[in-house]
Amino acid sequence: xxxPLVSFLVPAYNHERFIEKCLNSVLFDKYANKQxxxxxxxxxxxxxxxxxxxxxxxxxxxxxxxxxRENKGIAATLNELTALASGDYLRLGASDDYFLPDxxxxxxxxxxxxxxxxxVVGDSIVVDDQDQTVHESAMVGLFNxxxxxxxxxxxxxxxxxxxxxIGGPVPLLRKRGLDAAEGWNENLLIDDWxxxxxxxxLGVVGFIDVKVGAYRVHGTNTSKTKDTERRIANLRxxxxxxxxxxxxxxxxxxxxxxxxxxxxxxxxxxxxxxYPTSAWNVLMFGGLRAIALLGSAPARPGxxx
Length: 305
Fold this sequence. Notes:
Number of helices: 11
Mean pLDDT: 91
Low-confidence stretches: 298-305
Shape: globular
Order of helices and strands: EHEHEHEEHEEHHEHHEHHH
Number of strands: 9
Radius of gyration: 20 Å
Strand content: 15-25%
């Protein structure tokens, strides 16, 4: 039986404390046909040295492609990792997270059984910087979502638009799915929401209720910063993702994405102490969301259009 190759993609940046655990998790993953593709994206700590030593120890037992170069940012690194990968499937990770050993088998099985899907996401556990489990489910404990909403195409599309809950090394992609989504946008600081909005618009994202990775929360998580200027920059990044993707959605989903744009604008205005502007955008968010939800509600029995 031909077992498709899975390429594990790991962009590494300043994670000397966590990178070896991440790399070991690729080695210990139970999937039989795998490849590791890793780029050190200009780390200023000992990350590159630790990777080099690990590669030297394990290069005879695993297909490894390793590049050490100057910093280019996460989106450019993901695009480069993809270009280096040979796999039919791509598992996305981060150098402070790690993969759980049975996850890839379950995700490949899903995509092989669902040929119209280009990506599948699972759940993850949440760990701290000491490897202690914080939540048994990132989706429930960290993001407070109802996982049953991910069981339909409509539910996944709505959740990706309204409540980003895909945290950690949980996606598996068909490599040809990168062509459909046009890769990662190198003009954005954080591109994961933008990338999955493009896939959600196509209706090609699936979900399995299986814990496939470990998402690490610690003081240097890019999306968890308390610095006001960085938070504003991240929110503007999200606002640009809304603008880029509005044309890909229609009907109630387009309205929902417009509503999210208003919510993002409200958060930016609040952080800038522009409270009337923030309040106005909150009102607009509520109105647009109500319109979208009414538009997606099922017709009453006996109702006519």
